[in-house]
Each structure stands twice: as C-alpha cells, then as structure tokens.
Amino acid sequence: MRKKREFVENSFYHVTSRTNDKIRIFENRLGRKIMLIVLQDAKDKYHFWLANFCIMPTHIHLLIRPSKNTSLSKIIQWIKTRSACRWNFIHGSSDHVWGERFFSRPIKDQQEYYNVMEYIDQNAVKAGLAPAPADWKASGAYYKANNITGLVDFTPNDRQPYIKLLPAIPSNVSTLIPPAQLEHTLRYFGVYAEAIDKLYTLVPSIPKLGESSFLREPPICLHYYNDTINYFIYEYDGKDTMQGLIRFTLFPEENGYRKLSLAEIKKITTMQLDFSWKVT
C-alpha cells in the first residue's frame, strides 16, 4: 500500500517529481519553457505561494505552500497532466511524460526551510548546468535575482542572497539621494541596493554645468519627484547647482527651465529620486 501523504495546513512543502524512466524531457529550452508556462498557469488557476523552484532535465523541484482549502495533490497532478498534454501536443506523441507519483514533504521549521531553499538553488550548479544558482533561467534563483515577479513569490529581503554585493557608495552618488530615501534604501536593501548601483553609471552621463550647450531633450537625466512636483535635471556641477525642467502638478503656469539647488530639493522630505530615468 502507498504511504498516505502527510498534510500540515499552512505549511510549505518540498515537492519533487521525476519524468517517466528519467527521460531528459526538460534538457532543452523548449521543454523547460513548457514547464514555466504550466507553472504560471497553475499560479493563475490555484492559490499557492511558490517560494522556489528548479526545472532539471529529468525532474522538477518546488518549494510550495498551498492556500487554505487548496489541495497540494490537486495542484501537482494538474501541473503534471497539463505539462504532459502540452508536451505531447507539440511533439505529436502520446508518451508518458511523468512517473506515477510525486514526492512531497512538509517543512517542519525555519531551518529546514532554508536548507531546502539552498538545496533547490544548488541543483543546477551541482549538475554542471550553471556556474551559480541565479545563472540557471529555469529556477526561482534566476527570477529573484532579476526581480521577475508573478511566478515566484518573494520579498525584498528574500532577494538579497541572489543580488551582487555593491562596493562602498561614492560620495557623489550618496549626496544626490534625498536623506529619507537613502535611509530607507540602505535599511531594507543594505549593500544589495540595486537602485543605488544604477547611479554609478547614470551620474557621469549627466553633462557638467557649463561644459555643454543646454539640452532641452537629453537622452538621460536625474528625475526628482513627489506628488506635486517633478524636477528633470539636465546639467549638474557635481556639487549643488543644477539646471533642468520643473513641472508643477498644481501650478502648471510656473513650469519651465531654471537653475536649481540640490540642497533645496533635498529639503523637501517627500522628495524621491528616480534612479534610472531616461527621457523618451
């Protein structure tokens, strides 16, 4: 007799399912694409949290938490049936794609959760398919590293192990960021703050004040904004003086080009900086 599956409400599960006779169905991009589409379809049809996944040539790993009143078995069987139908339709076959039964184990505690997360991340690396977890596109690590939402569920803190470590923030970059925004960014993203990293290449692209003729439609600029005002900085002296376009939401008659003070802009506590603004 088959052992009855253990079900723990509101628990994460490590799920593994292998292909029939370990055939390397997902060895190529088409096979993996089929699984990615089906996983997304499953997310749209059922309610569950997908914390991680990895599609290997002969099997898949999922770290999944079904919502209340949602059957894990029903979700996995739907995924297997739907992917098999897609595979057979595309290849004009009627093969048995999956082995009969999938493996599942409830996660007992936080340490086991992290252990399983790491185990899934390292699958493609240990198999020699990628040098690092985030380099394997058919994985949760890739989605988190590249901030791709919708399929994998994650928080900003969940992303941190997958994002490159930044060097020290240069003074000419940190001085551009309004204090409240800088504090929030460092507090919640720390040395993994990708937004700050974008300024490394953005700032040198802004013409120095007086070094070039003033461009009213440059390809790139600094964009400071809140609910009532937008500053588009087109030239900058590297310290405090800027020149650019001001757009007022409430007083459009005051819109126009003028010189600005960085210190004055940063005094507005609600002001934010768009780290990668490009004029289109």
Topology:
Elements: E1 13-18, H1 29-45, E2 48-55, E3 59-66, H2 72-91, E4 103-106, H3 110-126, H4 140-145, H5 156-159, H6 171-174, H7 179-189, H8 194-202, E5 222-225, E6 229-236, E7 241-248, E8 256-261, H9 262-266, E9 272-274
Antiparallel strand pairs: 1-3, 1-4, 2-3, 5-6, 5-9, 6-7, 7-8
Structure commentary:
With 280 residues, the chain is α+β, with helices and mostly antiparallel strands. It folds into two domains: 13-162, Transposase IS200-like (Alpha-Beta Plaits, 2-Layer Sandwich), CATH 3.30.70.1290; 166-280, no CATH class. The chain is built from nine helices and nine strands. A hairpin with a 4-residue loop joins strand 6 and strand 7. Helix 1 (29-45) crosses helix 2. The longest helix has 20 residues, at 72-91. The mean pLDDT is 87.
Descriptive terms for the model:
5-stranded antiparallel β-sheet, elongated, 4-stranded antiparallel β-sheet, Alpha-Beta Plaits, 33% helix, 2 domains, alpha+beta, 20% strand, 280 residues
